[in-house]
Design goal:
Elements: H1 2-26, E1 40-41, E2 46-47, H2 49-75, H3 81-98, H4 100-126
Antiparallel strand pairs: 1-2
């Protein structure tokens, strides 16, 4: 069970660190081929301008921090890690849906995390954790 715990925490932290790409690309702090800078969301249907993209990039940053903190909380047996992970995953799902063409894989990971949150208590009970 301990190994599973470490693997899950590592996966959450990596997913969070990948969110930093959205922050870097949309602030913009750098150029990423996978996430070219733009001023629209929803496949060009919603023009948010430069300021809107900066706010959008902060949502990516918040998701990055939330996933890393949730991973640490899981490892440290913090009681609030699941609530933080749920809120962070919903935020992540929002930003990935708004940027679907570039981030649809992240949305699929978010849906998987949400499903895992539903079955985690059963898994932990089954393995005696």
């Amino acid at each position: 069970m301990r190994l599973l715990l470490y693997l899950v925490a590592l996966g959450l932290a990596i997913h969070g660190l990948i969110h930093l790409m959205g922050f870097v690309a949309y602030w913009p702090l750098g150029k990423l081929a996978e996430l070219p800078y733009k001023t629209t969301l929803l496949e060009g249907r919603w023009a948010v301008g430069h300021t809107g993209m900066r706010l959008f990039s902060l949502l990516w940053l918040a998701a990055a921090a939330g996933f890393v903190l949730a991973a640490l909380g899981l490892l440290l047996s913090w009681d609030g890690w699941q609530a933080l992970l749920l809120a962070t995953t919903l935020l992540s799902l929002l930003v990935t849906v708004l940027d679907w063409a570039a981030a649809y894989r992240g949305a699929m990971i978010d849906v998987t995390i949400l499903a895992a949150l539903v079955i985690w208590p059963r898994l932990a009970a089954w393995f005696g954790g």
